[in-house]
Design brief:
- The complex is a heterodimer of chains A (48) and B (454).
- Chain A has 48 residues and is low in regular secondary structure.
- Chain A has 1 helix and 1 strand, in the order E-H.
- Chain A starts with a strand and ends in a 30-residue tail after the last helix.
- Chain B has 454 residues and is α/β, with parallel strands linked by helices.
- An 11-stranded mixed β-sheet of chain B has the order 12-11-10-9-8-7-4-13-14-15-16, with helices on one face.
- In chain B, helix 7 crosses helix 9.
- The chains are: A little secondary structure (48), B alpha/beta (454).
- At the A-B interface, strand 1 and helix 1 of A face strand 3, helix 3, strand 7, strand 8 and strand 10 of B.
- Strand 1 of chain A pairs antiparallel with strand 3 of chain B, so a sheet runs across the interface.
């Protein structure tokens, strides 16, 4: 494509189907404790 | 739903439901601004008329076809299929615990949400007995979950460090029998750090959060000792020593973590200052406070704060890949390997996957609810847990919050902080708009950095 560059390959919808194992870190346990950000957490699903 | 914005010379388009991020040229960007999800295969005539000045018919046709192709591939104006998942959200095992090892503190930070450690109660240290009961509680309610997190928090947890050590030892002794892996973290102001404590922390804690606001003239007025002296001079060498020793250890994750307020809206200078001291994992966050507090950020401050986030993002782009490169917690984003949509729907997990335990053994939805006694949801003595309350929090998903459901940033912030919502909007389902605006700006900056550093 000439007019657009897509910079990621993951599809969030697909992750919904195999997701939800819950082994990842709770967001407030990383550094924030006051302002929630979830998208910067790592996925730890071994079966995706 | 899409979100399009221009930043630092980039035209950026987010497709909210698929998570796709596109960098586009001006014609694509402007054309997209005129379209919605009702796309036809053939380029409509009115688009040719709209863009005929400065563009050939072929360019317009070609650009439209790229938009249409991405739409067909479900990467632009993709459908919202998440309602069915949101309806499936049920209470989950408890996997994370904030252990309030000390409701006491040796600093008197002006903006402390914990009421200088007292949490609207009284000064109190957790006993080893309560700490161990809390570990038993976490094991019990984590059911089949393997990875468990315990954050030693306060107040100031180093004021009760012998209990920290005892609790860690106790939890480790149960890992094998219960097939659990404990990940410990600690949040400290550093005043009481010494080599023994540093070595223990670096050996046992997978992450350590070191509290400092940045420049001396910013840190000291907001983070004084009980007698009013500033804390900067005594903690900097201790934090540097901890980080230096940590570089060679089993765990290398840490953050120097500060708070910015109305008094330092040039907070990028604090981030840069911390970096100049040798720290490369940095988090500096907006204060969350009652709007009447003199240091509180208000809506009027947003333009300045937004400009400062943009300035910081630009600096990070310029430093990327150099020796001065550093990580800023709120600009971290992984567009390919980040959390699954279920986690993003579920949000922070407080009161459901995450709980806080006070020194007297009371269980609350999270550290920020502690002291709000209406929200108490159990205790570690009787191992009780209010399952109705837990269910309420499990339902507090992005799709359970009206304002969030239609927000483009919903899968990045995941509904925001329930405690902020409760405190400032009176309802865990009503997001605190000031926090929302800040979060959206951070997400825009984070994605721009990704685009610029490909």
């Amino acid at each position: 494509m000439k007019h657009v560059k897509t910079i990621n390959h993951a599809n969030l919808k697909e992750s919904a189907v195999k997701g939800g194992c819950g082994e990842c870190q709770a967001s407030c346990q990383s550094a924030c404790k006051t302002s929630c950000t979830v998208a910067n957490q790592k996925c730890e699903n071994k079966n995706k | 739903m899409i979100h399009q914005y221009k930043l630092n010379g980039y035209n950026i388009v987010l497709d909210v439901n698929s998570g796709a991020v596109h960098i586009v040229d001006d014609l694509f960007y402007d054309m997209l601004g005129c379209l919605d999800e009702q796309l036809t295969e053939k380029c409509p005539d009115w688009l040719f008329q709209r863009f005929e000045q400065g563009h050939t018919r072929q360019e317009i046709e070609e650009t439209y076809q790229e938009i249409f192709t991405l739409h067909k591939a479900d990467q632009l104006f993709s459908s919202d299929d998440y309602d069915k998942f949101a309806k499936m959200m049920v209470p989950s095992p408890v996997k994370a615990m904030c252990l309030h090892i000390a409701h006491d503190c040796n600093l008197r930070c002006k903006y402390c949400f914990a009421d200088s450690g007292e949490y609207m109660g009284h000064r109190e240290l957790m006993s080893a007995e309560i700490g161990k009961a809390a570990i038993d509680y976490l094991i019990k309610y984590s059911y089949g979950r393997h990875n468990l997190e315990v954050d030693f928090f306060g107040g100031e947890p180093l004021m009760n460090f012998d209990v920290v050590k005892e609790v860690v030892k106790y939890a480790r002794s149960l890992e094998k029998e219960h097939d659990k892996l404990f990940r410990f973290t600690i949040t400290t102001n550093g005043i009481l750090l010494n080599d023994d404590k540093i070595d223990f922390i670096n050996r046992e804690m997978s992450n350590v959060v070191l509290s400092i606001d940045g420049r001396k003239e910013v840190n000291d007025p907001m983070r004084p000792h009980v007698d009013g002296r500033g804390s900067y001079a005594s903690i900097i060498p201790k934090f540097q020593r901890l980080v230096e020793k940590r570089r060679n250890g089993q765990f290398d994750q840490y953050y120097v973590r500060g708070t910015f307020t109305k008094f330092n809206k040039d907070f990028a200078n604090d981030v840069l200052h911390l970096n100049s001291l040798g720290f490369d994992q940095i988090s500096v966050e907006p204060v969350v406070a009652d709007p009447s507090a003199p240091y509180a950020l208000t809506e009027q401050d947003l333009p300045e704060v937004f400009a400062e986030y943009e300035r910081l993002a630009d600096i990070m782009v310029k430093r990327a890949g150099t020796k001065e490169d550093f990580n800023f917690f709120h600009f971290m984003i992984d567009l390919d390997q980040g959390p699954c949509a279920i986690k993003r729907l579920r949000g922070c997990g407080c009161g459901n996957e995450y709980v806080a335990v006070t020194p007297s053994g009371d269980v609350y939805p999270c550290h920020q609810f502690v002291g709000h006694t209406d929200w108490k949801m159990g205790d570690v003595f009787s191992q009780s847990l209010d399952f109705e309350r837990k269910k309420q929090f499990a339902s507090a998903t992005v799709y359970g919050k009206k304002e969030c459901k239609n927000c483009w940033a919903k899968f990045y912030c995941s509904g925001g902080c329930n405690a902020n919502s409760m405190q400032y909007c009176g309802d865990i389902l009503k997001p605190f708009q000031l926090s929302c605006e800040l979060e959206k700006k951070r997400v825009e900056c984070a994605i721009m950095i990704k685009a610029a550093t490909l």
